Amino acid sequence: xxxxxxxxxxxxxxxxxxxGEHTLTDSELLAIVLRxxxxxxxxxxxxxxxxxxxxxxxxxxxxxxxxWEGVKGLGKAKICQVKAAVEIGRRFNEEKIKDGRLKICxxxxxxxxxxxxxxxxxxxVFKILLLNSQNRVIRIFDAEEGSVNQAKPIxxxxxxxxxxxxxxxxxCVHNHPSGDVMPSNEDKEFTGMIVRAGESLxxxxxxxIIIGNGRFFSFCDKGIIR
Length: 226
Description:
By secondary structure, this protein is an alpha+beta fold. The protein is built from eight helices and five strands, in the order H-H-H-H-H-H-E-E-H-E-H-E-E. The protein has two domains: 3-93; 100-218, Cytidine Deaminase, domain 2. A five-stranded mixed β-sheet has the order 2-1-3-4-5, sandwiched between helices. Helix 2 (26-34) crosses helix 3 and helix 7 (151-164) runs parallel beside helix 8 (185-201). The radius of gyration is 22 Å and the shape is elongated.
């Protein structure tokens, strides 16, 4: 039977409207995103199959289209719906910055904002948080893509933007696509360079954070940046 043939109290949409989205299972939420099923399968059947194949919503956002071939009944339109929903979740987390200038109190605050997106990136990228004197985020911007081997151009860009925005301090964040968060020698050298450059401009580098697979490394937490 299709979902429309179920008892009304068992249909995912009706359950959401009656009890709230927080009461739905992952399969029921995904079925609502998919909207319809395919021949012989309801949207909930397809949702359950997708979750068995990928395990998590995060994994669905990571894989390319070719990996979806194992889920029969999902065409490109439905795959795009799922990927769009996952991306909305990521952006929702980042929008907290825009609401009342989020205050950064620890490295965990930074990881909570940026890890959902950065842990899945296939390339190494840098993001810079510009903070005011109360440690509230003024802006987050992407520095040049690449590795710490291009440190000098990145450092120039960081402090150029900090001066333009009248930032009091900065926090540098980059990811390791391998998932390993331990800093390389290049990471350590880069950190020393950006801290010293900030001192000369009276703009403090509060931290350098490396994001991996569900984990992060903070130079400040380890006492390397004081």
